[in-house]
Amino acid sequence: MAAQSRIPGFRDESPSGRRALAAECAGVPSDALEAWESGGLGLEQADHMIENVVGTFGMPIGVATNFTVNGSDVLVPMVTEEPSVVAAASNAARIARERGGFRTSSSAPIMQAQVQVLDVADPDGARVRLLEAAEELILLANDQDPKLVSLGGGALDLKVRTVEGRNDRYVVVHLVVDVRDAMGANAVNTMAEAVADRVGQIAGGRVLLRILTNKADMRLARARAVFSAEALGGAEVVGDLVHAAKLAEIDPYRAATHNKGIMNGVTAVVLATGNDTRAVEAGAHSHAVGARGQYTALSHFEVDRDGDLVGTLELPMPVGLVGGATTVHAAAQAAVRMLGVGSASGLAEIITAVGLAQNFAALRALATEGIQRGHMSLHARNIAISVGATAEEIPEVVGRLIADRAIRTDRAEQVLADIRSSGS
Ligand code: MEV
């Protein structure tokens, strides 16, 4: 069954009811998402993952609804501690789907490793000697990972830069590697270490660093969506959203917050799928430094000929489906199953669509009613649930907490008691 991401009434279900519905709508067996019940990570397994383990650390996982990516519905797993994020992504996706949802694309899954060479007498000569030896070095790199090569990946190219500091000039070799469905850090680091001695010999210098670059600017994913002016409340709101986005393009103080909003969505899916959040964040923020060296917005918003708002986002997306926590963590495996993705690029593209949705939702809130109102109603809803309000009682409790501007547990208990005693 093709996935169905419009699920009316989803949020009114219990967590187990939502899991059952999500499994049904994603077309996976009902037990495929069960790992989320307990968190999916036993103590013994955790003890093998990192050092000095003392326990595990729980976080909520939610499912964002309404997403359509390249014409197919997809349910999106999101791990975050921040209220409003999942609801905001779902709302944005609902508006985007009116105009066909998100369109995405991506480059080949190419990562790069750097090998730094010191004390080179003739850096320009060394650069050209290394390029002459490119084929030999690429073969040496590929000897490290025949499996990757058999899958159609492996080292493809070699680039050599000279990087100048105040007193030093380094020769820096970049190994350009197609890592297929892996995040690729292990593959490229192994290759960099393997070629290091030979690189040092050819350059006539001493090799120091041999490590991937997280500025993964050859592994880009893009998303685009149209948000109808009508759904946004008219041309004025569209214009204000464009102004809001524009400030992030020209002012680094705003850009940091704007991009943080994008990463609210991105990081939540990266984490849910067991991928390396820091690698994606480092890639995103380094990509946000524009050609003139100024930190700027990762996304852009403009008005199309119909007066609708067009949002676009492009950023490095080094995520994988094989290796690391994605392979061993049952909750991450459940996330990948629900997403129904078959390749790292497919996953990267969905994550980028979620980043764009999140960004749009934040801009919309900021350019209209402000961010606090939405936050407050979700907060009030959580408080209402925590004091035992039923699905029928929640709207009334939430409404009164907001009207009283007293979103507190003691007030919620009082309100609930009043509702019950008056039978309203
Ligand atoms: C809050 O987590 C994210 C926002 O600040 C993003 C933004 O300002 O665009 C709302």
Describe the structure.
- It is globular and about 85 Å long.
- It has three domains: 10-107 and 220-368, 3-hydroxy-3-methylglutaryl-coenzyme A Reductase, Chain A, domain 2, CATH 3.90.770.10; 110-212, Alpha-Beta Plaits (2-Layer Sandwich); 373-423, Helicase, Ruva Protein, domain 3, CATH 1.10.8.
- Helix content is 50%, strand content 19%.
- The mean pLDDT is 96.
- A hairpin with a 5-residue loop joins strand 9 (299-303) and strand 10 (309-316).
- It contains 18 helices and ten strands.
- The strands form three sheets. Strands 3-8-10-9 form a four-stranded antiparallel beta sheet. Strands 5-6-4-7 form a four-stranded antiparallel beta sheet. Strands 1-2 form a two-stranded antiparallel sheet.
- With 424 residues, it is an alpha+beta fold.
- It has helices spanning 15-26, 35-38, 43-49, 85-97, 123-132, 134-143, 146-150, 185-203, 229-232, 235-250, 252-272, 277-287, 324-328, 330-339, 344-367, 371-386, 394-403, 409-422; strands at 61-69, 72-79, 103-106, 110-118, 154-164, 169-178, 206-212, 220-227, 299-303, 309-316.
- The structure holds (R)-mevalonate (MEV).
- Residues 82, 257-258, 260-261, 264, 362-363, 366, 371 line the site of (R)-mevalonate.
- The site of (R)-mevalonate has 10 residues, from helix 11 and helix 15.
